[in-house]
Amino acid sequence: MTAKECIKGRRSIRKFKEEAVSHDLIAEIVETASYAPSWKHTQIVRYIAVEGEKKAQLSQCTSAYPHNGEIIAQAPMCMVVTIIKNRSGFERDGSYSTHRGEGWQMYDAGVASEALCLAAYEKGLGTVIMGIIDDDKIAEILDVPADREVIAVIPIGYPDEEPTAPRRKPVEELLSFQ
Questions:
Q1: How many CB atoms are closer than 10 A to CB 136?
Q2: Over the range 13-34, which residues count as b (16 or more CB within 10 Å of their CB) and which as e?
Q3: Segment 133-146, tens digit of pLDDT
Q4: Total domain count for the chain?
Q5: Is residue 168 part of a domain?
Q6: Contact assessment for residue 13 and residue 127, using Cβ atoms and an 8 Å cutoff
Q7: pTM greater than the 0.70 cutoff
Q8: What is the 8-class DSSP label of residue 127?
Q9: How far is CA 161 from its chain centroid?
Q10: Is position 104 within any domain?
């Protein structure tokens, strides 16, 4: 599969087969995603693979958008994306390196999350990145260390749907040359 095929073929999957995802396959996907770039190579993203009872608890952490809870509940596994706080975009003395401040943390988390989703797609798995979640409640359930922050939940599993690609804006609207 070419990079173009992978990028154009990946869809947000919200229905999964009951088939379990092997831990070895998840480890391989995370190893591939670890090659995502990060600010000053800080590599702040950490993943927590969640199954079983804890995953069921996570499904209750989406009161702002209950449909996300349904998706989490029926996915065989969820990847919780966390970051190590105050590294990406920061200097050693704690000051910001750029006017973006702590925004670089989210940038790095987004790049790493998409790398994870593309690596999963290449292996036949589906994913959807969710941000409408109760970060604090998830951190409590998973006992996330205080120096980390929960950023997103990514349900992952074998797809039980084949969504069509939404319409894309034309290149002329997305690109300008100066």
A1: 12
A2: bbbbeeeebeeebbeebbebbe
A3: 899 999 999 999 99
A4: 1
A5: no
A6: yes
A7: yes
A8: E
A9: 20
A10: yes
- Which residues have a Cβ under 8 Å from the Cβ of 113 and sit 6 or more positions away? 45, 81, 129, 151, 152, 154
For residue 154, what are its two tokens?
Answer: 């990514």
Tell me how far CA of residue 41 lies from CA of 34, 74, 87, 126, in angstroms: 11, 35, 10, 28
Task: State residue 82 phi and psi, 5-degree precision.
Answer: -125, 160
Closest alpha carbon to 7 in 167, 122, 164: 122
Is the pLDDT at 96 greater than 90? The verdict is no
Q: Mean pLDDT of all residues in the chain?
A: 92
Assigned domain for 38 exists: yes
Its domain, for residue 108, covers 10-160
Mean pLDDT across 115-124: 97
pLDDT band, very low/low/confident/very high, at 86 (cuts 50, 70, 90):
confident
pLDDT in tens, 23-82: 999 999 999 999 999 888 889 899 999 999 999 999 998 877 888 999 999 999 999 999
Residue 121: CATH number of its domain: 3.40.109.10
Strands (E) across the chain are located at 45-50, 77-84, 126-127, 148-157
Q: Tell whether 147 is covered by a domain.
A: yes
